[in-house]
Amino acid sequence: MKQEKLSAKRRLYDKAMKTLMISSIVIISCLVLFLIVYILAKGLPNISWELLTTKPSRLKGTIGILPEILNTLYIVLATLLLVLPIGVGAAIYLTEYATNYRLVRVIEYTSETLSGIPSIIYGLVGMAFFCEFFGLKTSLLAGSLTLVIMNLPTIMRTTQESLKTVPQSYREGAFGLGSGKWRVIRTVVLPGCVDGIITGCILSVGRIMGETAALFYTAGFAHELGGFFEGMMNSGATLTVSLYVYAKENGEFDVAFAIAAILMILTVLINLAASLVESYFKKRRSL
Fold first, then answer.
1. How sure is the predictor about 187, in pLDDT bands with cuts at 50, 70 and 90?
2. Who contacts 279 (Cβ-Cβ below 8 Å, separation ≥6)?
3. Whose CA is closest to 129, among 108, 111, 143?
4. Angle subtended at Cα 194 by Cα 188 and Cα 196, rounded to the nearest 5 degrees
C-alpha cells in the first residue's frame, strides 16, 4: 500500500512538473513571438531606401540613419579587433599555461562578477576613465574601449569552456610526437574548439550591437558621416542610441520602430549565423 501511494504521488508530481514546464514554454514562446511580430509590423512599413541611405537634415526636413548604421559597424569592428586577441589570449593562458590554480579561480570569479555588472556602470566608468582621464572625450573610440571591457569576460569564459572540451589525450599524443607547447595549442587544441570560440564571438557581436546605456556617456549622439578613422575619434550615435533619441527626445516613433525592426532582423541573423557556424564546425570535426 505504501509503495502504491508513493508511486501515485510520484506520478502526480511528474505530471504537475511536466504541465508547469510546458506552460512556461508556451508563455515564453508566445511573448517572444508577440514581441517579434509587433515590432516588425510597426517597423517594416516605415523602412525605406531613403531612410537607409541618407543622413538627417533639418534644412531638407529628411530623416536618415546611414550615419548610425556606419557608426554601429565601426564600433563593432573596433571592439572585436581589440577584445578578441585579449580575450582568447587570456583564456589560452589560464587554461593551458597557468599553474597557480588559486589565482585562476580568482580571475574566473572576477570575470563572472564583471559580466553581471549593469552596463550603465560601465558607461560611467568609461566616461571617467577614457573620456576624461585619457582625454578621448565623447567618441566612438571611448565607447569601443568601454565595450571591450564589457565583452572581455564573455569572450574569455566562452573560450575557456571551449578549450576544456578538447580531450587531454589529444594534447598528450601531440606531446608524445615531440611537439612543443605552442605548436600543440595552435595545431591541436584551437582547431578542436574553434566552433565554440566563433560562436562566442558572434554572440558578443549581438551584445555590442544591442548596447545602449554604456554608449550614452562615451560615444555621444552625433549624426555625422565620416570614415572609419575619422569617425572613431568623433562623437557618433549607434542604432540603439538613435532609437532612444528618436523615440524619447524627438517623438519620432515611426523611425524608432523602423530602427527596432532593423535591430531585430540583425539579431535574428546573428543568432542564425552562430547556429550555422557551430553546426558546420561540429560536422567538420566529426569527419
1. confident
2. none
3. 143
4. 130
Question: How would you class 190 by CB atoms within 10 Å of its CB: exposed for 0-12, middle for 13-18, buried for 19 or more?
Answer: middle
Exposure letters 111-142 (e unless 16+ CB within 10 A, then b): beeeeeeebeebbbbbbebbbeeeebbbbbbb
All three cell numbers of 275, joined, read 547556429
For the stretch 142-165, pLDDT in tens is 999 999 999 888 888 888 888 888
Contact 122, 149 (CB under 8 A): yes
DSSP string, 70-126: HHHHHHHHHHHHHHHHHHHHHHHIIIII---HHHHHHHHHHHHHHHTS-HHHHHHHH
Q: How far apart are CA 73 and CA 6, in angstroms?
A: 60
pLDDT tens-digit series, residues 60-72: 667 888 888 888 8
Beta partners for 57?
62
* Amino acid identity at 30: C
Contact 243, 237 (CB under 8 A): no
Asked whether the beta carbons of 136 and 142 are under 8 A apart, the reply is: yes
Is 285:195 a contact under the CB 8 Å cutoff? yes
Cα torsion angle, 118, 122, 123, 128, sign: positive
Q: Among 76, 121, 102, which Cα is nearest to 263's? A: 76
Instruction: Tell me the C-alpha distance between 77 and 74, whole Å.
Output: 5
Written as one letter, the residue type at 9 is K
Count CA within 13 A, CB hemisphere, residue 8. Answer: 5
Provide the grid cell at 51.
531612410
Q: How many CB atoms are located within 10 Å of the residue 220 CB?
A: 22
Full 3-state SS string of 142-173? HHHHHHHHHHHHHHHHHHHHHHHCCCHHHHHH
